Structure formats: structure tokens, C-alpha cells
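Margin note: ligand = nicotinamide-adenine-dinucleotide.
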Amino acid sequence: MSEEANPFESLQEQIDDAAAFLDATPDVLERLKHPERVLEANLTVEMDDGSIEVFKAFRSQYNGDRGPYKGGIRYHPGVTRDEVKALSGWMVFKCAAVNIPYGGGKGGIVINPVEYSMSELERITRSYAKELRPIIGEDRDIPAPDVNTGRREMNWIKDTYETLENTTEPGVITGKAIESGGSEGRVEATGRSVMLVAREAFAYLGRDIADATVAVQGYGNAGSVAARLIDDLGADVVAVSDSSGAIHDPEGLDVEAAKAFKRETGSVTGFEGAVEEFSNEELLTMDVDLLIPAALENAIDGDLARDVSADVIVEAANGPLTPEADDVLTERDVAVFPDILANAGGVTVSYFEWVQNRQRFYWPESKVNDELERIITDAFDELVSVYERNETPNFRTAMYVVAIRRVLQAAEEGGIWP
Ligand code: NAD
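Resulting structure:
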């Protein structure tokens, strides 16, 4: 996370930007600018050598007006209370944007997981699950994977919770392995929603995505799946990158071969199918039709935004533009389709996983993909209709207007407990 933009302040600014288009009083909006509660825990865990280490951990439950809190768990040395609060707030508006019946939450442990053995990570995760136990549950708060966590950690949390509660409740967590109650299609879901939003965006703008050139920053789960599915639509993915640098072929890269190369070697650079290599900064300012930031927060700041050449951006990462970059790109008429819609495929298929867990009845992948497409295209249609009706300055503000309205309506119907 770069130091210039505090993500929690960015979230509050995004709510303020939408406020001008909402019929809501400042006191009502003030409530949406803060989490309902944040758990802060100090996990005391025995290491393999018998020593003791203490890890700071958080879980923010931002807003539960529309349903149980929902959101991932991040393991990263840069995790802070403000980052967790911001990410939990973005989850509220993401779930409301695609109209799935959840509130928003997020958790994190301040840790660099590569420094610990698997058995240490298991004890750390189970200690965290013990702290979470009183506040999570399939009708209370449903965690999921985020940066540096995956099926393995989700399975440990589920097992700890179920053991302590003496029950079976797979819907307490999503992103599980298939054999432990996971859903078909979950791994590809985020990249798939990025592709669907790109496809709808080009159709809305009156352009043919099959003629588009595309650059993808970050070739991990979200970025590489989005690249493959957009390539399948006939577009040319001309550049992709990861933390090692960017690779380029003006005729279009073989995205599958580049992914296989990264799987083998750990990075995209060195891929023999590329014509040249350059820096990530050069990728972000390349002259392409569509730019997909799919790495980390704050990838594009105000200065870089002035040099962006793409005229459409679809955000796969959470918060890849600083508020200043957003202002610059709005001013320059670059069409930015926001993260809370574009990467909502992940949480939407988590929702399907939870539905399947509760019904104890599992769907084939084709049904998962069809339902995901319906939810994302409905949300896209709602976005453009609010954008046109309200004449918001950009698509992000229009999406926040849709999402905040839904949260406020649920809050109003519930009333205020004295
Ligand atoms: P990942 O770890 O699989 O991939 C991240 C990729 O970004 C890696 O290839 C890494 O090398 C690259 N990267 C890191 N720093 C970079 C830099 N400075 N420049 C270029 N590349 C860089 O992670 P992911 O799951 O694909 O998540 C990526 C983003 O998408 C994150 O912001 C995450 O919050 C968001 N997201 C992911 C999901 C999901 O289901 N995977 C859902 C919603 C949002």
C-alpha cells in the first residue's frame, strides 16, 4: 500500500462524492462512513522451536443492514486497522451494487506468511478462528479468502469453528475446497466478472471488444483469468505484467502459454513468446483500448493518471486508483468501470457457495456461470441507467449511488434501535 492514500479516507471520499446525488441527510450518511464494530485481537501462538509470538489481528464488521457481514481475510505485513475498515466498507457497497443479500466485513492478520512453516500457519489460523468464533456464523459473518489466504486457511477456519461449536456448518466460510463444500466456478469467478463488465462496457460505448487491444497489470488469479476470457472474445491481449515486470507483443500474446510459463518459473518476464519487456509503469501508460489493473491498491496515482493512454479501464483489483487519479481520469473522459462491480464475481460466487451449503445441494459449473452472468449484467444495466439519469461525473459515483441507496433503504426499513 502506498503511503499517499489512506484507503479508509478514500472510501469516505467516495461516499461524499455520491452524496450529492442522494436524497439523504448528512447524519444518515455519517453512519455509513464508519464500521459498526472492529474486533482487535492479539493471537498468542507457539512456534515450532517452542518460542511464543504475538500477532495483531482484526475483523471489521462494517454494516449488516442487508444481511450477514461478508468479506475476506488477508495475511500481509502491511495490514492495518484502517485498511481492514476500508476493505470492509467496500464489501458493503460491492454486495449492494450487485444486489446480493449481504453486508460487508473484512479481516486481517499482520504477518508475512512466507516466514512461517505450514504447522505454524495452521496454529495462527486456528487461534484467529477461536477469536472469530463468537462473532461469525452462516447468519452472522461469513469470511472468505483474500490476499495470501486460500482454500487451505478456509478449511482450517471451518474445521475450528465446527469443532468448537460441535456442528457442521460449511456456510460459515466460503472459498473452501470443493470436497469441503466449495463451489464450482469460484476460482475463475473474479476474472469472469471482469470479462463480463468489459464486454458490456464496450457494447455500451458502441465499440467492438473483438477489435480491442488490452493490457493487464497483475497476472495472478483475477488478471490471468480475465485475460484468457477477454482473449476468447477475440480481443488482443498485447501486454501483461507481474511484480517482475511487463511483457509485450503488439500482435497479441498467447495468454495460456504466458500463464503456464508463470506457473513454471514464478514470473511472466523471460517468456519466449513476447517481443519485448518493459516496466509496469510503461504498461499502465501504454496506448491500448482497455487497461485492466489487477494487482494492488493505489497502482495509479494522479501523476501516472495524466499519462494513461487507454480510454477504458476496468478495475479488477480493489482500489487500484487513488482518489486523485480518479479525478484526473474523469477530467480526461477516460471511462473507468469500478472495482465494486467489476471484481464482484468473487463474492457473488461465494454467495452461490453459501446458498449451496445451506441447501446441501450442489450446482454444475454451467449453472454457476449462467447465474453470475445474470447478476453482473443486471448490475451493469442498473449502473448505466443511474449514470444517465443522474448525470454523475463518472461510473464509479453512479455505482455508489446505486449501492448506497440500497443500504439506506434497508436501514430505514429496519429503523434505529433505541
Ligand atoms: P494474486 O496474488 O493471485 O495476483 C496478484 C498479481 O499481481 C501477481 O501476479 C503479482 O505478481 C502481481 N503484482 C504484485 N505487485 C505488482 C506490481 N506492482 N505490478 C504488477 N503486478 C504486480 O491476487 P488476485 O487474487 O489476483 O488479486 C488481485 C487483486 O484483485 C487484489 O486487489 C484483490 O483484492 C482483487 N480481488 C481478487 C479477488 C479474487 O477472487 N481473487 C476478488 C476480488 C478482488
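The radius of gyration is 21 Å.
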